[in-house]
Design brief:
Layout: E1 2-6, H1 17-31, E2 37-43, H2 46-59, E3 66-70, E4 75-79, E5 83-87, E6 103-107, H3 109-126, H4 156-162
Parallel strand pairs: 1-2, 2-3
Antiparallel strand pairs: 1-4, 4-5, 5-6
Length: about 160
């Protein structure tokens, strides 16, 4: 079993060699049918999420193993409920190459099972298959103005990570 939950999970573009290499390894696990792969990633921009999901489908991923979750900031991977990787690792081209994102691997059944229960909860309760409409525009709002109830406020850094 391979459970991946990350705020950033991008499909590789043609020049994203490192990201492609990583995702091909995940895809190989999914295709064996012996390893159940489930992925949750953050939903901020439905158009970007749709493009990502289409790119992953084009790579050969089974889309039934993917869900999106609003406000997800988790960056973790759980393997067989025995090991858990936690840290700052974004699954983007920059995250696996120039940014030097880093995570720690814990070979600890109890810790891995703790995070697997959280993943299972998020998969069942918070994560969704439907990404919704892609017609929600990005609005620039002055810092002193309130965020409309049907919107989320992003820092410049969070916005740039989506690109």
């Amino acid at each position: 079993e391979l459970l991946i939950q990350n705020q950033t999970f991008n499909a590789p573009k043609p020049d994203h060699k490192k990201l492609r290499e990583l995702l091909e390894a995940v895809l190989a696990k999914q295709k064996t049918k012996k390893v159940k792969v489930r992925v949750i990633f953050r939903l901020l921009d439905t158009k970007k999420a749709r493009t990502t999901l289409e790119g992953l489908k084009d790579m050969g991923f089974n889309m039934s193993d993917f869900r999106v979750q609003k406000n997800c900031h988790t960056k973790g991977i759980i393997v067989d409920r025995q090991r858990v990787l936690l840290g700052s690792q974004n699954l983007s081209n920059d995250g696996v190459s120039v940014n030097r994102d880093a995570s720690l691997l814990f070979d600890d059944d109890e810790l891995a099972q703790y995070f697997a229960k959280i993943f299972d909860h998020d998969w069942r309760v918070l994560a969704k298959k439907n990404i919704g409409s892609s017609f929600l525009p990005i609005e620039w709002v002055p810092a002193r103005e309130a965020t409309p109830e049907d919107r989320i406020r992003l820092s410049w850094k969070d916005y740039m990570e989506m690109l």
